[in-house]
Write a structure and sequence with these properties.
Elements (H helix, E strand, L loop, with lengths): L1 E5 L4 H6 L14 H6 L3 E5 L2 H4 L5 H4 L7 E4 L9 H7 L2 E4 L5 H16 L2 H10 L4 H5 L9 E5 L3 H10 L6 E5 L6 H7 L1 E3 L3 H7 L2 E4 L13 H4 L6 E5 L8 H10 L2 E6 L12 H4 L8 E3 L8 H19 L9 E3 L13
Parallel strand pairs: 1-2, 3-4, 5-6, 5-8, 6-7, 8-9, 9-10, 10-11
Antiparallel strand pairs: 4-12
C-alpha cells in the first residue's frame, strides 16, 4: 500500500530536533515502520497534492484513495461531503493537541488583556514609559469570557479559566454541555450568537470550520461585540472575516485580536493581520500556526496517526472519537449538524 504524507518543511530546525515529527525530514516517525510492513511512504509538501483530497472533482479521480488521516485535529482541508459520496474514510487524532491549543488560548487572552506585546516592544526599543502601557492593561479577574464552541478545546479553555475568578464564563454551542460538566466550570450557555458576544469582554473561537462557521465573525456580528472587547481565534482563520476584524481593531471596536490561524496559510507578507493595531498602537497578538504543534503534541499526534494506520492495515476497529467520516456517512456533528 502507498501512504501519502503531506507535511511541512522543517529545515535546519527539524534536522537538529528529531522530535519535530510533523516535518518532511522526520516523517511522523512512520517510514521505517511502514517499510518493515512492505508499504511505501511518499512525503510531499505540495498544496496541489493536498487539493486531491480537498475538491470533489479531484477526489473522484483518486480511485485508490480509501483513507484520509489528519495528523492532529481539524479536517476542514478535506472535502468531507465528497469523502462521504466516495466512501472515503476521514479520521483525526482526536485529543492529540487539545491541551496545547487550550494553553495557547489562555496565553493569548492574557497577553491581550495585560497589553503585553506593546510592553515587550517598548523594552526592545530601549524605552521605559509605564503609563503608555498601563493605560490599556487590565486584570482578567471580574471579566466575562466566552467561548464559541465548547468541545474538547473550548471546554479545556473554560477549565483553565476557572482559577482566574472571571465574573462569568459563557459558551455558545449547538449542543449544551452535560449538566455536571457545565457545573464543574460554572459556565452558562447562551443560545443566540449576537446575545452571546454582546455579554463578553473576551471572546475565544474554538469551533471547527465548516459551511456554517465560515465567516461567522463578520462585520455584522462585530457590531454586537462590547466596544473594546478582545477576540482570540486559534480554531481556523476563515471563521473570522479578515478585513472586518482588522477594521474593528483599527477603529477600537475590538481592543485586541490574537491567534495563530490565518485565512490564507502561509500568510502573505502583506496580510492585514500581521500589522494591524488598535488606536493605541497595540492589540495584535498574531503568530504563525503553531498552537497545536508543540513537541508534546507532535509526539501524541504522530503516535495517533500510526495507531490509525495500524488499525486500518490490520482491519481492526478504529476508536470512535477519531472517526469524522465513516463509510458513506458522517460519524460526528462537529462539522455541522447533518
Amino acid at each position: 500500500m502507498k501512504v501519502l504524507a503531506i507535511l511541512y518543511t522543517g529545515g535546519a530546525a527539524a534536522q537538529e530536533e528529531p522530535r519535530l515529527l510533523g516535518t518532511i525530514e522526520n516523517q511522523l516517525g512512520l517510514k521505517e515502520w511502514l517499510t518493515s510492513k512492505g508499504h511505501e511512504l511518499v512525503v510531499t509538501t505540495s498544496y496541489l497534492t493536498a487539493d486531491l483530497v480537498k475538491k470533489a472533482r479531484n477526489i473522484s479521480s483518486a480511485k485508490n484513495l480509501k483513507l484520509c488521516i489528519t495528523a492532529g485535529v481539524g479536517s476542514d482541508h478535506i472535502d468531507l461531503n465528497a469523502a462521504v459520496d466516495s466512501r472515503i474514510q476521514v479520521l483525526e487524532v482526536s485529543g492529540s493537541n487539545v491541551v496545547s491549543v487550550a494553553e495557547h488560548v489562555v496565553m493569548s487572552i492574557l497577553l491581550l488583556v495585560r497589553n503585553f506585546v506593546p510592553a515587550h516592544e517598548m523594552i526592545e526599543r530601549g524605552d521605559w514609559q509605564v503609563s503608555d502601557i498601563a493605560r490599556n492593561a487590565f486584570d482578567l479577574e471580574n471579566k466575562v469570557v466566552g467561548t464559541i464552541g465548547a468541545g474538547r478545546i473550548g471546554y479545556r479553555v473554560l477549565q483553565r479559566l476557572v482559577p482566574f475568578d472571571c465574573k462569568e464564563l459563557l459558551y455558545y454551542d449547538y449542543a449544551p454541555l452535560p449538566a455536571e460538566a457545565a457545573k464543574a466550570v460554572k459556565a452558562r450557555r447562551v443560545e443566540e450568537l449576537k446575545d452571546f458576544v454582546s455579554q463578553c469582554d473576551v471572546v475565544t473561537v474554538n469551533c471547527p470550520l465548516h459551511e456554517g462557521t465560515r465567516g461567522l465573525v463578520n462585520a455584522e456580528l462585530l457590531k454586537h461585540f462590547k466596544k473594546g472587547a478582545w477576540l482570540v481565534n486559534t480554531a481556523r482563520g476563515a471563521i473570522c472575516d479578515a478585513d472586518a476584524v482588522a477594521a474593528a481593531l483599527k477603529s477600537g471596536q475590538l481592543n485586541g485580536y490574537s491567534g495563530d490561524v490565518w485565512n490564507v496559510q502561509p500568510a502573505p507578507r502583506d496580510h492585514v493581520w500581521r500589522t494591524v493595531k488598535n488606536p493605541l498602537g497595540g492589540g495584535n497578538g498574531m503568530v504563525p500556526h503553531y498552537s497545536g504543534t508543540t513537541l508534546d503534541a507532535q509526539a501524541r499526534y504522530a503516535a495517533g496517526t500510526k495507531s490509525i494506520l495500524d488499525n486500518y492495515l490490520e482491519n481492526k476497529p478504529q476508536e470512535a472519537q477519531n472517526i469524522i467520516v465513516g463509510l458513506g456517512k458522517y460519524e460526528t456533528a462537529a462539522y455541522g449538524q447533518r
